Amino acid sequence: MEFHLNPSSGVATYQQLVQQVHQALQLGLLEPGDQLPTAQQVVASLAINPNTVLKAYRDLEREGLVRPRPGMGTFVVGRLPRTDPAAQTRFRKSMSAWLRSARAAGLSAEEIEAIYRTALRDCSQEEIA
Fold it and tell me: Taking CA atoms, which of 45, 118, 126, 127 is between 20 and 30 Å from 33?
């Protein structure tokens, strides 16, 4: 697993790490037994404070999703509910095609994200109504 940060998201760095582990579990990219990157590896790749990584890993441990093994690293021990993997694959392919067409139309990553977030919010509001 490789972490990425979005400094303009407004989400705390440690929380972004937690969210990415959650997403990887939900998509089946991480399974029990898989090892997370060491704090040193994350610090080296993202240039963040080691305590930030440790805080994220502690939160994941409190949730019962990971467990540290002294001298070995931090390993996934829990699962999160997943939808049908075939459905995930189908929608991911569809979304990838949509993203490629948006980029081809000249939209920036920020514009694409704004469109996505607006559409998601609109759909969520429709479900409530």
Answer: 45
Q: Which residues lie closer than 8 Å to 13 by C-beta, 6 or more apart?
A: 5, 48, 52
Torsion of CA 117, 128, 21, 115, to 10 degrees: -10
pLDDT value for 16? 96
pTM beyond cutoff 0.70: yes
Cα separation of 78 and 55, whole Å? 18
Q: Which tokens hold the place of 120?
A: 């998601």
- Considering the segment(s) 13-76 as one domain, its CATH architecture is Orthogonal Bundle (1.10)
Q: Are 60 and 18 in contact (CB under 8 A)?
A: yes
**Helix (H/G/I), strand (E/B), else coil: 13:** helix
Inter-residue contact 66 to 31 (CB < 8 Å): no
Domain positions in the chain are: 13-76, 85-128
